[in-house]
Amino acid sequence: MESLNAITALQELDELRVKYTGKKGELTLLLRSLGKLPKELRKDAGQELNTLRDEIESKLEQTGRKIRDDENERQEKAQRIDVTLPAKGRTAGAFHPVMQTMHDIANIMQGLGYSVASGPEKEEEFYNFECLNMPSWHPARDMQDTFYFPDGTLLRTHTSPVQIRAMLQYGAPLRIVCPGKVYRRDNDPTHSPMFNQMEGLLVDKDVPFSVMKGTMTEMMNAFFGRSLKSRFRASYFPFTEPSMELDIECVECSGHDEHCRVCHGTGWLEVAGMGMVHPNVIRAGKIDPDKYNGFAFGIGLDRMAMLKYGISDLRLLFDGSVSYLLSGLGGEN
Ligand code: PHE
Q1: Would you give the distance in Å from CA 187 to the centre of its chain?
Q2: Is residue 182 within 6 Å of ligand 1 at its C-beta?
Q3: Which of 61, 139, 180, 234 is the residue whose CA sits 20 to 30 A from 147?
Q4: pLDDT digit string (tens) for 267-296?
Q5: How, if at all, do strands 230-237 and 194-204 pair?
Q6: What's this model's pTM, rounded to 2 decimal places?
Q7: Ligand 1: distance of its center to the CA of 198 in Å?
Q8: Residue 118: which residues within 8 A CB-CB, separation 6 or more?
């Protein structure tokens, strides 16, 4: 009875059962040896041993039940669910900052009546260069170090070929933006061989220069969520004439920090190339340049994302670190 009171596990209980009431158990052996007792003692001894066996068996059973009950209770306690506790947080995915930027700018442009168009990343020289007023002898082809395939096709160096494809497909008037990947033979801390651009094209009758300037500043202000100073500099692209580049006020220091790591103290950030579409390009799109004109622009989406989200290293955008991607830079989406 002492050993029975001390045990806590079913296995120990089994061991005790075997020890006393098993085939070779102490009590069993005693019961078997009754025959060796003198006759007159046998009856009393037998009765006593039977009572003892009943006692032991019922105590074994009782202890077994108690152990099982205790175990059940313990498990129940361990597994009990408190339904009043707040739910565990779930790590939600987020858009990659570049994708978020792409969506944001596309949304802004859709608000101005533009549709989103797309074209292939593996492109023909014809669309990537020829149609964009860059014949094979044109020195501007050197501006864009190109990845060629053995068959003469190439990885598009900019999203501008989509201008041609869209004009051929939809005709005029036309307003499109085309976000997508572009490729150049560049690889250093500030250049990646693959990056993301967004092309814009508007073709209509009598499109004034001022509409381009207004569209670009509206887009930048809407994207950064505040009114930024902007300036347009004369530039050169073979497919636009005149051509310009847009600088916006440094989103980091607004020109107040001569050691600013973003604008390097210039106070300005180059964010887009643009211009009035060259008549040769309109013609290549099978639209009559005497009836229609327009403007086009190209912006670097990676750079825009870096500026908006304060990302200082371009490589962070492309190394696929999950913790970085889950950090929620992508905003509320
Ligand atoms: N395609 C040019 C580039 O990649 C950008 C651009 C697009 C300039 C449209 C003018 C008009 O550098």
Answers
A1: 23
A2: no
A3: 234
A4: 999 999 999 999 999 999 999 999 999 999
A5: unpaired
A6: 0.72
A7: 9
A8: 162, 178, 179, 180
